[in-house]
Specification:
The protein has helices spanning 34-42, 56-61, 65-74, 89-98, 103-115, and strands at residues 4-5, 12-14, 20-22, 25-26, 47-52, 78-84, 124-129. The protein has five helices and seven strands, in the order ββββαβααβααβ. It folds into two domains: 1-29, no CATH class; 33-129, no CATH class. The strands form three sheets. It has a three-stranded parallel sheet with strand order 5-6-7, with helices on one face. Strands 1-4 form a two-stranded antiparallel sheet. A two-stranded antiparallel sheet has the order 2-3. It is an alpha/beta fold. A hairpin with a 5-residue loop joins β2 (12-14) and β3 (20-22). It comes from Mycobacterium xenopi 4042.
């Protein structure tokens, strides 16, 4: 793939299962084939950990994404989905940096709303997180 980043030092890495794997880095999440995302979540055996600001792209791009997570939890996979807190200066700053303003806040809230009904599902954890912010959004007077 032309948009893959394969450093010249790429080599097979040992896993805790004893077999090698080769790490592949992509310049953007959009370069990773949808089938790779789907297979990654569908084939999880022990855990799925997702730490994101909003991740609405997962719900929008992957058909049956929520059902895949619920099916994994039903077969004993620990599913943890941590979403950025929409009520923080860091989230506002991210919206400014991406040029989408408060849309990022809406995206965080959308993901929370989609996951909230399933937070009590055995094996599932959904927790808003607070991103670390080192600078304030423009016009902010609070530290």
């Amino acid at each position: 793939m032309a948009n893959q980043f394969q450093p010249s030092t790429a080599r097979a890495l040992a896993t805790n299962l004893g077999g090698p794997f080769t790490a592949t880095l992509y310049a953007s999440r959009t370069q990773l084939p949808i089938t790779a995302w789907q297979q990654h979540f569908a084939d999880a055996a022990t855990g799925i950990d997702i730490l994101v600001l909003a991740a609405t792209f997962l719900f929008d791009t992957l058909d049956g994404f929520l059902d895949t997570l619920l099916a994994a939890a039903a077969r004993g996979v620990q599913v943890r989905f941590l979403i950025g807190d929409p009520d923080t200066a860091a989230t506002i700053l991210r919206g400014e940096e991406e040029g989408i303003g408060e849309a990022v806040i809406a995206r965080c809230r959308t993901s929370v709303e989609l996951l909230a009904p399933h937070a009590g599902t055995p094996g599932c954890t959904s927790v808003p997180t607070t991103p670390r912010c080192t600078r304030q959004p423009s016009g902010s007077t609070t530290p």
